[in-house]
Amino acid sequence: MDQSRLKGKNILITGAAKGMGAANAIHFAEQGANVCIGDIDEAGAQETAEAINARGNGRAIAVRMDVTKRADNAAAVAATVEAFGEINVGLFNAGLNKPRFFMDIDEDNWDMIMTVNTKAMWLGMQETARQMIKQGKRDYPYKIVNVGSIASRKPLVDVTVYCTSKYGCLALTHCGAVALAEHGITVNGYAPGVVVTPLWEQLDKDLIDIGFKEREGQAYEDIVRDALQIKRVSYPDDVKGTAAFLVSSDSDYMTGQMIHIDGGWCIQ
Ligand SMILES: NC(=O)c1ccc[n+]([C@@H]2O[C@H](COP(=O)([O-])OP(=O)(O)OC[C@H]3O[C@@H](n4cnc5c(N)ncnc54)[C@H](O)[C@@H]3O)[C@@H](O)[C@H]2O)c1
């Protein structure tokens, strides 16, 4: 691994107390990036930051933030700048899911998922871009990276609101790429499929509660058998290389793209 590949990149990453966000933050710092770990789970954010600082190379700070609040997004950007001098990358990863069949969706389910997954992404992008614009254009682009999903592209019957929220992440990626290009900011994203994280472990149980699956682990097995070309589920380590590419200079000439890392689900 090139330990200086991401040197000079100061990255705000939301939802990095655990799951894919934590794995990515650690991986970025191993390659020289400085990272601000923003999460509503303050203890988990601290843990990720401590793991990074114990390893050396890139540095980390932890910030308690609720991504759905504009002020928290602004404060996380400010903390990144205060700690590292400027912000170069915003990676909007915080997200959640709570499955419901279409006719069972209620306002609470809708508001919770849309607010965390989509509205918060817009807030994070806007507050980050505001600071980048203030810093002024560079020879290389600032980067915004959004986390989508296979649900950004497939109508999955058990998670309609999640799909709506993640189609929204794709729209924010496209619209952001167009709107922010003149300021020297690129906007891309990546879209995982099934990744074994705390989110999926909860989803696995919730799918039994709504009557879609009968036993734990069945959802994994069904998806691997029926939808994936690569016949296994994935882990955060499967995602981190693409995430690192998108925050690195190797992707400088890309904007408005959502890369699928889903074992071939999206082509089915
Ligand atoms: N796990 C999968 O299979 C999968 C597949 C496709 C896309 N995704 C997406 O990847 C991203 C990361 O998912 P994960 O599986 O690592 O999830 P996870 O549950 O392991 O981690 C999500 C993190 O987001 C944080 N978070 C939630 N609400 C927040 C809020 N209001 N403010 C601040 N932080 C908040 C949580 O505390 C947690 O640390 C999400 O956007 C998710 O939708 C996950």
Automatic annotation (TrEMBL):
Key words of the record: Oxidoreductase
InterPro entries in the record: NAD(P)-bd_dom_sf, SDR_fam
Keyword DNA damage: no
Pfam families (UniProt xref): adh_short_C2
Gene Ontology molecular function, alphabetical: oxidoreductase activity
Oxidoreductase keyword on record: yes
Coiled coil: none
Family statement: Belongs to the short-chain dehydrogenases/reductases (SDR) family.
Name assigned to this protein: SDR family oxidoreductase
Organism field: Histidinibacterium lentulum
